[in-house]
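REQUEST FORM: STRUCTURE PREDICTION
Request ID: SP-0412
Submitted by: Lab K.M.
Chain count: 1
Length (residues): 374
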Amino acid sequence: MSSVNYNVLGLIFASMHDSYVSELTKQRTMGSIPFGGRYRLIDFPLSNFVNSGITEVGVITKSNYGSLLDHLGSGRDWDLARKKGGMHLLPPYSQTGGIYKGRLDALSNMWGFVEHSKAQYVILSNCDVVTTIDFNPVLRQHQETGADITLIYKKSHYDCEKDKCSTILEFGDDNTINDVLVAPQISGECNQWLDMLIINKDFLRKIVFDASSRNLYSFTREILQNKNSEYKIMGYEHKDFFVRIDSKDNYYHANMMLLDTETRNSLFKKNMPVFTKVGDNAPALYGLESNIKNSLIADGCIVEGTVENSIIFRGVKIGKDTVVKDSIIMQGTKIGNNCSISSVIMDKNVEVSDEGVLTGTKNCPFYVDKNSKI
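STATUS: Completed
RESULT:
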């Protein structure tokens, strides 16, 4: 894969839309939510940057970011532990004190970091969209069209009853933005913005300073909606797989989709690996009476029971005669003997005693808090 031949800065908002998955973000940010057996959500935008040749990345935090800091460390696992460029963790405070109120407020607060960068272009990304993308063709289009802002979108089905935080784009004949709709009351195939954009740094400086002087916070409403006729805002269509994590139920179904081989191959590509923190665990150990069907089992697990259609994270222990079906079991959880677990999202370090029974449904999975004892 070819790398970018101009200076680009990547910025990741680690806590955008935390409130939509409040069960999972009580003690962590959106970016540090476990996903797919061994990853965190922030691994996907970080890997997209690295695979695109972008080696200067800022991670904008907000609150509850202890687990995020532990996961990211120095950035070594993403080859971002560098003397020049590399990964930088940016503080969460706003210019007016307290937590920032939106993208523009956050950018205004940490603008000194952006200004210090020699980048010509800035790419903004959230953590709640899981996808694999090469930014090189997007950057080339951005240059060739002379756009002020290029938004990355995907044509896909939108359901106003289920999709809480989607932004829908409407285009003119020349691929410029005509209208921007935030969570509209419509359903059908739409151009969904993936909360990723490319912008010239000089232009970003202009709109951030202008917004700061007017006490404006929301990039979507103040820039994309109110200024789309004034600025040249264009779209780039992303044609590969994506999923948005905007509710507990969507998180469950996004993980379950990974049990399908075609979906896994669409997200985890050979030429674009998804990097994550290395656990250095032993391989999974399976008991003589264990029975595994259509499941993802991470390293460090000890399984002595039955696991069907489930995702089991690192270091999970499942006892004898226990049956785990259609569930997500996060790192370090211990499930005793003769238990029945069905359609459950079990957070990290949960302990389930012998003969425990937990049951949800596929449309409404039962959630167990981190560090619970049942």
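NOTES: The two ends are 49 Å apart (CA to CA).
Reviewed by: T.R.
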